[in-house]
Amino acid sequence: MPATALSAPQESTECVHFVDDWHGILHETYGGDSDRVALDCARRLAADPAGEGAYAWTLGLVMMAAHIGRFSRKDVAAAALEALHATDRRLREAPCAHRTHPYEGDLDDRIDHFVDDLPLLTNGLAEDRDPDWEDDATKEQWLCPRDIAGYARVAIDIIAPGSVGGIPPRLPVRDARRAEDLRSIVWDYPSAAVDPAQELSAYARNLVANPLGYHRAGLVVVLHAACWYAASGRIRDRRVLDTMVDALEAVLPGLGGASCAHGEGEHPEVGRDTAEQATVGIHLLSPGGRGVYRHWHREELETAPLEAWLCPAFLAAIAREALDHLRTGRERLFGLRDTAHLDEALLRPDGRLDVERLTHAVRFRCRDGQAAEDAGLWAARRFAAGPADPRERLVLLLVACWSVTSGEEAPPEAVHRDLRAILGAVRADLAVGACAHGDAHPWEVLAELAGRRHFGFHEDPYGAHLNHLYAPGEYDAPEPSFGAEVWGCPRHVGERVGQALRIIDGAR
């Protein structure tokens, strides 16, 4: 049986030579053969599943369980599970006078300390005489056979989620990773290894495949949390939004015209903290996660009870809200963008451009990105319609290019579809050759000055110049000034068109 007498120093268990390796595998920093280390630990436990060293080999497998479950060969996982089950069978019914055991606590709070605490368990010092011992539980509780059996079950559940009972509720490791990835997406800082399009498509496909299943509530909550990101323009693959729409359309009939007994304000608040909401959604996907959420609710009464998250009426309401948002976003990003209504805003009563309004919309795209996109698309379409005034044609073309190059990323398909066709036709018609201006073309000069903050943080070099170019009698000539022939130089125009097309083509 595992040692519990602490009155005299004991010979250190052989495990102390491996604990650093186990810790490295836990944190994915171990540079050796992780499967060899895990298999060695499992074999040592299997050789004496209730012996004096069982506590060490069991805790070692707890430290490596996430790696074993995710990365190890099948034979390694099978050996670990067999050894852990043997330990559980041998020790779980052992006599015990303890009211609680460490395995019943939060593993995440303790597992990082295993590397330091494990060698201390059999160093012969009682807790009050061991300056390095900081855990709330006694060493006797840690070495109790029932605690070792409990940790064996914890490791089994990490390697093979849901395959064993008698453990505290725990979010499966894979779901903890999913929650972390999903939070990074809705925060708009996806982790390096995360592809938001693939992640969101996977959740949507799972809901399409089984819209009435156990995972329904969690998937609806997740898709609602992510719908703002998906419709923001960050994802440029229409199929992702199509799949999310299909999923929510599939789930609504099963929720029907659900009503409930919850009063006003008793359903969970959603949409305000999408990262927290996404985390809850992931917890709803598994019995362990739901158990963890119940514990949260007991500890933090301001959280909604689990039953409120599972309420069909609540799920129907947020599914409809997410569906409406995704449909609207899909049309804005991939549909036919209407700009005819801008004639009233961007044309004066005499039919001439209100050029200041036009350039203002593009200049302040940081405040209203869609207004800048629409203004650029309107300018391109009006240019393609062939206004007679050559100055107007030039300004419209430059504004259309500016609307593309001023953004941090390419415009969505609903915008760049027409832009590419119009600008592509311009490039094909341009006869670009050598010119007398050298590197003194306006846009390049202004860009260099802006980069050196020549104009200050809030000054706009481009809009002021375009206003003057179109209506020199109405707007003062800004410095440095350029003649109309330099602005209209085929090489200058060709460079602007070419840069805009390169950005657009990069989004395809």
Mind sketching the topology for me?
Elements: H1 19-26, H2 34-47, H3 54-71, H4 74-91, H5 107-110, H6 114-117, H7 139-143, H8 145-159, H9 173-186, H10 196-209, H11 216-230, H12 238-255, H13 274-283, H14 287-299, H15 306-310, H16 312-334, H17 343-346, H18 355-363, H19 369-384, H20 390-405, H21 413-429, H22 442-451, H23 461-470, H24 484-487, H25 490-506
Helix pairs in contact: 1-3, 2-3, 2-4, 3-4, 3-8, 4-8, 9-13, 10-11, 10-12, 11-12, 11-13, 11-16, 12-16, 18-19, 18-23, 19-20, 19-21, 20-25, 21-25
Describe the structure.
The protein is 59% helix and 0% strand. The protein has 508 residues and is an all-alpha fold. The protein has three domains: 14-168, no CATH class; 174-334, no CATH class; 340-506, no CATH class. Helix 2 (34-47) crosses helix 3 (54-71), helix 9 (173-186) runs antiparallel to helix 13 (274-283) and helix 11 (216-230) runs parallel beside helix 16. The model is unreliable at 1-12 and 454-458 (pLDDT under 50).
